Amino acid sequence: MQNSQPEIAFRPVEREDYETLRGWLNQPHMREWWGDPEEELGFIRDMVEGRDTTRPFLFMLDGRPIGYIQYWFIGHHQNEEWIKDNPWLTELPSDAVGVDLSIGDPALLSKGYGSAAVTAFVARLIGEGHRTIIIDPEPTNHRAIRAYEKAGFRTIPHLEGRTGDTLLMEYVPDFAA
Hints:
The protein is α+β, with helices and mostly antiparallel strands. 34% of the residues lie in helices and 21% in strands.
C-alpha cells in the first residue's frame, strides 16, 4: 500500500460469492487461522441465509473484492454453551460486537490493507451506534495483531492471559494510528 489510504468499501456476502470465499478459505494463510474451508463456508452460508446473526461482508479495494470481514454480537454468545468454553464473555457488555477478518489473496498481505479495512469497518460500526468493538486474534498471529493495533485496538488488560487461545483486544479511539 502506498502512503495514501486505499478506497475500501464493504458489501454483504451473497450466494454468488461462495466460490470466491471457498478459494480464499483454501489458501494456506487463511486455513492456518480459520480452519476447515468447507466448515467455515457452511458457517457463512448460515449467516447469509439467516440461521446465524453474524453479519458477513466482502471488503473491496477500488471495487475489487480482496477480503472477508464479519461482525458478531457478544450478547448472542453470552449463553451457557459459549460461556462454558469462553468465560471471559461474561465480562463484556452484552451490546458489544466482535470483528473477524482476513485478506483473501496472499499477495496482498502485509501491505496495510488489513488495517485499512478494519479501520473503515470500525468507523462503519460506530456510525451504526456500536460503542464496544472487540477483536480476538490468536496470540501467535503477529501480522493480524500489528494490523489491529494500527487500527486502534489494544489488549484488554484485565482479561490478558484469561482468554485461552485468543488475545482479546478492544477498539480504543484515542490510539488509532
